[in-house]
Amino acid sequence: MTPRITSLIATDFRSLRGTVTIPMDSPVVLIHGRNGAGKTSLLTAMELGLTGHLASLSRLDPQLRNHLVHKEAVSKTASVSIGVHGLGVEFSAGKFDIHGSEFTGKAALNSVLTKHFSERCYLAQSTMTRLLEFYEHKSTNGTELTRFVKELLGLDALDALIDGLHDAGDVRRLRGHAVSFWDMREQLPSLDDELSRLAKELTSAEGQAMQLTQSAQERLTPHWPEVATLSAQAMLDLLKEQSQEPEQQRLTQLRRELNDTISQSQKEISAMAADRRSTIETAAVAADAALRSWLDTSGQRMTELFENLGGYFSDLPSPIQNRPEYARVYAHRAVSNEVARCRQVQAKDQTAQQQVSTLQTDRQGLATRLEEIDKQIVQHSREAGHLAQTLSALVPHMHTEECPVCSRDFREVSSSPLLGHLTARIASLTQSAGLLSALSKERANTGSEIAARDREIGVAQAQVQTAEAITEYGQRLAILEQALQELASLEGEAMAGETLFGQAANAAQALASIRAVDQQSTAIRDTAGRYATVLSVDPIGDSESLQAALQRFLTEVTARLERLTAKELARRDGQAALRELLLKQQNIETIKARQLERKTTYRRLQAAKEAGERTIEQARELLKLAQVERSRVMGQVFNDSLNAAWRDLFVRLAPDEPFIPAFALPQATKGGVEAKLETLYRDGSKGGNPRAMLSAGNLNTAALTLFFALHLSMKPQLPWLIIDDPVQSMDEVHISQFAALLRTLSKQHGRQVIIAVHEKPLFDYLCLELSPAFDGDRLITVELGRAPNGESVANTTVREWKQDLAIAA
Q: How far out from the chain centre does Cα 350 lie?
């Protein structure tokens, strides 16, 4: 069955308010409505449901997605649903829900059919007026027209072949694509240069190896004659076992010990110890006795004082540990800081107490004033302002001397008139009411001031110390002030004690040194005898002095050390020369191997280069054949298919136009295909671009017929033609021919035609021209409008074919 769009439902989409349901299961669907009724919105909803995109309007407004929901929609959402029949079960329907600028749902068509629909089936009103411009707009992939021509002619494979062989036309173009061949061309000269360089390096390396061999033999032969007949590796192995470092270290240590022994013997330690021992011991005893005397007197006083201060200060240093003056100064500074703090606390407490007393006196005065105000308020409140108002109301009714309250004649009790007495009484009551109001305000202000004084008294009392705290600070201050005086009085004694500590320490150190000297003096001669045994030389003679024997041992050690140092230096130099020789021999072997490898690579690349050049020549011949074949196919199809179809359609709609639009036939065989538009005069001569040669009406006709020609030139994947208001700027002749063309497309070519028009006469005319003409044929007409509440209304009429019985009879 021929694929067909069967239904469309749109809710609050663009200018469509409410839900509009349109049946479309018909070969022809005509849609009519006034401006703003929603014709374009209906076709846009159809495009969205089929493709999931809005390609026709997105060219005009990239932010179109933000304006798809009707502005007066209650739910602030929109939806589109479309039914399709004949494409298979997987392409049966499309539905989208729109929330703001977001789509959720599924399109009815896949990506391939979507592309075909947007390019070959749907012609929007905004697109038709600029269709030729869109087709000729050039992008990175060429124009849309060029891409369609390639697709129509099946030139993709041939163009791909020509593009792939393009680099073969010039060897310089192979740099970016035929990388291997270009690398081959560049590698051959560099390989030739490298082979020459390797030959020079080999000659130089062999000469250096010969020099290193001679140098090693000259250094090693005086000490090891057997190395003259050995190889480099064998000589190196022999030298590893001949290390003299352990013996060198032993002799070096022995020489150091001899030098130390000689230095000690030269000090004449025994004589010096005998002369100074008595003096040092006497001084040490005296210093120790003086220090003990100080500790029993001044030291005891300081210790007791520091113990008393320990309850107040936990980090005081000890006064009898080497530095009593430092301890005294530290304690004096700590006690002074604490005394200052205690005095500051007492001063703050006195200030707070004075402030509390002042505030309480002020509050008492305010309270007394408040009591006086209360008494005055009680006195004046007896005469209320309401009574004055009541008596004032009686004044207009007082015409005689009779009291309106007790009905008594007022002249019996007073010679003044009743009205005058009443007026005086009213004035007195009014004055009392004013005083009462003023006293009430003063009482409120006084109460506020009393509350403020209470708050200030509370703040000040919080700063007043308790009696226990004041007592404690007083005791602490008395004790610390007494201690401060005692610390000041101990300054001289503390400095004397620090001096005694230093003298006792110096005397003890001198006594320890003199006692150690005697032991060293006795051990020196015993040590000198051990050196003779270690060196295997003659021992110290009876008449030989200690200094002479030690000097003889030192000379022997120095001579042996010099011989070992010379031998070890020769060994190390020889090893370095032999290691360098081995590296040089390895380098020679590496150079020879690289020479062999490069020669093999050079021969291989030379052969590959010759084969590549033969292949390039074959590719050039194939490129020429492909370009000629492409030109032949393009000329045949342009003349026999595209231009013929476009010419027939355009002439059919615009029979009086002398300039016929056509595709410009490419003449060059080289380069890419670039489809362009031109016009041909009826005599065969060429004109300019259709946009420059045709009138506005015929330019629309050219765009419309080009769209039909491109649609009909290819096998229809989707046999649908959806056009929005296509008769702009057309006269009656164009419209008549256009109606006949639509009838042909629908009845003969099996296209489902969906057209939206604005003018009512044109709509009625098309309904007549496209009415059902045979059994099974159908026409659906849709008239869009607005209900009184503003919602969109679609009046749909389905016209079936009916046999005219009168004509049949």
A: 63
Helix (H) / strand (E) element for 21: namely strand 19-23
CB count in 10 Å sphere of residue 364: 12
Which residues make beta-bridge pairs with 660?
A: 680
Residue 687 zone, left/alpha/beta (φ > 0; ψ -120 to 50; rest): beta
Beta bridge partners of 28: 753, 779
Mean per-residue pLDDT of the chain: 78
List C-alpha distances in Å: 742 to 3, 80, 210, 722: 18, 28, 101, 11
Q: Are 728 and 123 in contact (CB under 8 A)?
A: no
Which range is most confident: 14-28, 482-496, 642-656, 669-683?
A: 14-28
> In whole angstroms, what is the distance from residue 700 CA to residue 694 CA?
9
| Distance, CA of 725 to CA of 56 (rounded, Å) | 14
Round to whole Å and give the CA distance between 384 and 389: 9
Per DSSP, the three-state class of 61 is: coil
What pLDDT is recorded for position 338? 80
SS3 state at 386: helix
For every residue of 598-655, DSSP letters joined together read HHHHHHHHHHHHHHHHHHHHHHHHHHHHHHHHHHHHHHHHIIIIIHHHHHHHHHHH-T
CA angle 759, 760, 766 (to 5 degrees): 95
Segment 20-33 mean pLDDT: 92
Q: What is the SS3 string spanning 264-327? A: HHCCCHHHHHHHHHHHHHHHHHHHHHHHHHHHHCHHHHHHHHHHHHCCCCCCCCCCCCCCHHHH
Q: What local confidence, expressed as pLDDT, does residue 392 receive?
A: 62
- C-beta of residue 504 within 8 angstroms of C-beta of residue 329: no
Note the pLDDT of residue 197: 86
Q: How confident is the model over 696-712, as pLDDT tens digits? A: 778 888 888 888 887 77
Q: Are 781 and 796 in contact (CB under 8 A)?
A: yes
Neighbours of 258 (CB within 10 A): 22
pLDDT at 295 over 90: no
At 143, give phi and psi (nearest 5°): -80, 160
CA–CA distance, 410 with 413 (Å, rounded to integer): 6
List helix spans (H) across 490-545. 491-535
Give me the pLDDT at residue 235, please: 76
CA atoms of 162 and 142, how far apart (whole Å): 16
**Cα angle value 292/294/297 (rounded, 5°):** 110
Q: Note whether 65 and 71 are within 8 A (CB).
A: no
Residue 267, both tokens: 């000090």
Task: Calculate mean pLDDT across residues 612-620.
Answer: 74
Going across the sheet that includes 102-106, the strands are: 19-23, 4-11, 77-85, 93-99, 102-106
Q: Where residue 739 falls among pLDDT bands split at 50, 70, 90?
A: confident
Q: Helices 245-265 and 546-637 meet at what angle, rounded to 10? A: 140
Selected residue with higher pLDDT from 627 and 740: 740
Closest by CA to 259, choosing from 523, 534, 553, 522, is 553
